[in-house]
Each structure stands twice: as C-alpha cells, then as structure tokens.
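Quick question, first post here. What does this chain look like in 3D?
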Amino acid sequence: MSHSPLPLGTIDLDPDADAPLYRQLYDALRDAILEGRLPAGARLPSSRVLAGDLNVARNTVLTAFEQLTAEGYLETTVGAGTRIAASLPDHLLEIAKGASAKRQKAKSAADPLSKRGQSLSKLQRLPVGYERGIARAFTHGLPAIDLFPMTLWSRILARRARDRSTGHFGYETSAGNKALREVIAAHVGAARGVVCTPEQVIVTTGAQAALMLAAQMMVDPMDRVWLEDPGYLGARGAFIGAGADIVPVPVDDEGINVEEGRKRAPTPRLIYVTPSHQFPLGVTLSLQRRLELLEFARSANAWILEDDYDSEYRYTGRPLASLQGLDRADRVLYMGTFAKTLFPALRVGYLIVPENLIDAFRTAIRLTGHIAPAAVQAALADFMSEGHYGTHVRRMRAIYAERRLCLINAAERDLDPWMEISPGDGGMQMVAYLRNGLDDKMIAARANEANIHLSALSTYSLEPNSKSGLYLGFAAIPEPQIAKATRRFSDLLNSVPMSRKVRSRN
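> Answer (accepted):
Ran it through. Tokens below.
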C-alpha cells in the first residue's frame, strides 16, 4: 500500500520557536487527523523518510509518533508500519466535532454570495435524484446514448489521439479546429439555411458555454434582455450571471409574443429565443413572427440569440429556415450543440457570430477556457465529414418518431383523465397540460419520489402561468419502458386527491 500524502505544505517547524520541534510536529499531525486531512487507516511514511522530508532529526519524528500512538491517534504494527487509527476514541471524536463546528461557524461568518451568485444557486435545473446519462421515464434532454455507435467513435477518436503530427497536444486555436468549423458551417447551411463562413463559427464546450460567452460579450449589467416565458433555465442563468435585467415575454401558439415584448421593453439589448422548438412548450415560431422579430431587432438595434438546440428532430411538416438565415441586418447570433444528436458528455457546441464580431469572440473564448479538447474536435470533424453524423441522426430521427408516437398513445390510454398531451412537431420531449387544476410541482415531486422523472412546467416560468403542466422526455426511453411507466404514473395519479389544486402564485 502506498504512503498517505502528508500535508507537508502546512507543517511549518520553527527551530527558534518556544515549543520543541517534536511538539510542533505532534500538533501539526494531530490537527490533520482531527480535520480529516489524514484519513483513518492511512499509512504514514517511515520515521526516517519523514525526518528527511522535514529536515529534522529522526528522534524528533519518533518522539512525535510515540506521543500520538499513546493517545490513540496512530497504530503501529510490526511489518506494516504506522497508520492513522482506524477508529478514534470518543473523546477524540468530540474534539473533531468541536473543530468542525468552529470551521462551520467561520464559514457562516464569511461574506455571503454575491446577489448574482445567490440567484444562480436557486436555479435547480434537475429534479432531486436525477442522474445524467441514466435513462428513466420520462427523463428529458437526453438522447439514446445506448444506440450511439461508440465503437466507431472510439476508433476515430483513438486515431486522432495517436496523431502527433497535427498539433493536438498543444493549445487549440481559440475559434476551434478548422476542419470542424468547415463541416459545421456546411451542415447548418444545408440543414438549417444558416448563411455563414467557417470563420464565423466559434467552437465551445457545449451549449451552456456558448450561452455564457454570448451573454458576457453582448450584455452589460442592467441591460434589458427578453427571455421567453416559460423558458430555458440555462439561458436565465447565463443572463443572471451577466447582471442583465431579465424581461419575461410570454409564448403562445406562434412562439414568442413580439408585440407584448415591445410593450414591456421597447429597447432591449438582446432577445433570447428557441424558434425551431420552443423550450419547454414545443411550439414553432411562425414565419410571420420571425419576420416581425427580425424587423423589431433591426429597428431597436437589438441582438437576437437563436438557440437551435434540437432542430434535427422534426416529425411533421417541413422546418422553417433559421432566423439567422432570414436575417439581413447581421443582428442574429446562432448557437447549436451536439449534446442532443450525439451524447452530452462530448461537450462540444458552437456559436455562429456576425463577421464584425469574429475577432472579439475569438479573443474572449480563450480567456474563458471553454475550448473543447483538440483531439475531440478533430475526431468530430472526421465523424461528420465521413458521413457518420448524418447516418446516425437519420436513424435516431426514425427511432425517436416511434417512441414519440408510443408516448402519445400510452398517455392517451393511461393518463387522459389527468392531462392533455401537446406533442409539438419535433424535439425529444413534450408537454402534458394537467386537468382539474392539479399542482404541477406537487405532481412532479410525487412522481420523482416514485422514480418517474418529470419536471413541472411552472418551474420554467418567471411569471404566474395559467397552465399547469409536466415535461416528459421520450428519446432515451425504449417503448416497453414508456408503456410501463405511463401505467405506473396512472396508478400514482389515482392516489392524488383531486382537491390538490394549483396553489396561488400571486
């Protein structure tokens, strides 16, 4: 067994001090044991090695060890060396508790979080017990990771990781791998009607990093920002972090209500929207609203941040062109992610910025540290350019369409007395509006206790919402599991008293 790493940096033995060296060493080791920095059962270096490390006589270490052993802090076994005691006596545990209480008191007396920090800490995006990457009905935002071609991906990644000739072991350029930026520009141009050059693509470590970067670069403290309501909590967090004055703008069947936003804040600095598949309601921003929004941004000198997080998955009708592709005034920043099409742990997203912002964003992202690993970027470029990305997305679109239909049918069969499904035209999850005035937060909490993972629609709202609902994911859930879960959920709902109405949010 290896020796325990001693906190030598905190052991300061002073030959000129009043206390002898052995006592100074005794005090330092005792404090480290009581504070948990030296865990129970950890093996210490030999007295000879420790004496050499501390530049003291060996007898100094032996005397300290003997005192600590006599008091129950250490245990010495022939042939096994000296270790921290496996269990401390009760009176020593009381000393440890006292030390811990002092530390907690010191922490509580410290300065509190900033106002932004306090606001950010309250944004709990996941229900208690939710584990990323583990698909349980009705986990949302998670693709079918088990169906990803991991062997193929591993082979491509290993090939890039072994390639020392392409600079993958140095510092990556701030904008991202050139080949990856080229394939991203080609993909969004063909699939989403985005008009851009590879130079406009800024590769980030996922969608949240892109949000944070855009918020920091485009918004000053107290700038007014339109945010869809209900809307994405990650975006709310990014704008809170930037110190923005967030203006909730309601969403209806055509998407964000531009006219209402104009009344509430006629001169916003930035407008955040999810036009292809609004989060969380699932509606598509109509063409009329898109044109209205673009004209408003131009006239108000506002910027638009278009989050196109899962537009690859559409099951009915043809998708509308991106806002960025319709923009003629260079007011739109477009962002996307590979978390939904491949897997979240890939941690690769991107921003597409107007040409006049390229240099500023390239400089800024280097300072944030949100640059994806070079080998991962190169492997993703290969995965896309060799056709694997398109093949995988097409396959997943077909599978998700089947799972979506399965959830619609199962919900109509088992859950109709309590809720009405609103499937939308695409995406990986859908909204179910509760009937009978049931409290969505109460229902979600009860469901999560029963290991059925749901989010309450009201969680995503800044203002009182007249509709109570739940957010149900289906992409990562096999069809038999979906059908089984709706039956379990029905049994749970049968046990909920109908008198549990929506609590007043006024």
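Confidence is low (pLDDT under 50) at residues 501-506.
The two ends are 62 Å apart (CA to CA).
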